[in-house]
Q: What sequence folds into this?
């Protein structure tokens, strides 16, 4: 599967507009999106293993650390799809950083 579910301008979750796809992982797809209020966010669409992923995200919602992205909310759209709304951090993916620095960061 090379295509992402959503493209620029799509609004899969009320209040958020997709700007571009960021990546895909084992639990779903991540998009760079803008809220109606202008906040830049990472919008994760949960695909597989929804219960497991949402349980893990829920446990992280109150963590505060300069080394972790902030999870703002978990919401469902009108179709019942689960979305995680997180702080957006630009730059290369963690996977790319680790590939470029195999001895560690």
A:
């Amino acid at each position: 599967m090379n295509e992402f579910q959503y493209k620029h301008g799509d609004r899969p979750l009320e209040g958020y507009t997709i700007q571009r796809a960021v990546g895909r992982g084992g639990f779903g797809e991540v998009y760079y999106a803008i809220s109606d209020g202008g906040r830049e966010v990472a919008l994760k669409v949960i695909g597989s293993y929804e219960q497991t992923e949402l349980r893990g995200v829920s446990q992280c919602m109150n963590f505060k650390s300069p080394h972790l992205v902030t999870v703002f909310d978990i919401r469902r759209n009108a179709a019942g799809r689960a979305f995680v709304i997180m702080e957006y951090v630009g730059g290369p993916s963690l996977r790319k950083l680790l590939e470029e620095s195999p001895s560690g960061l």
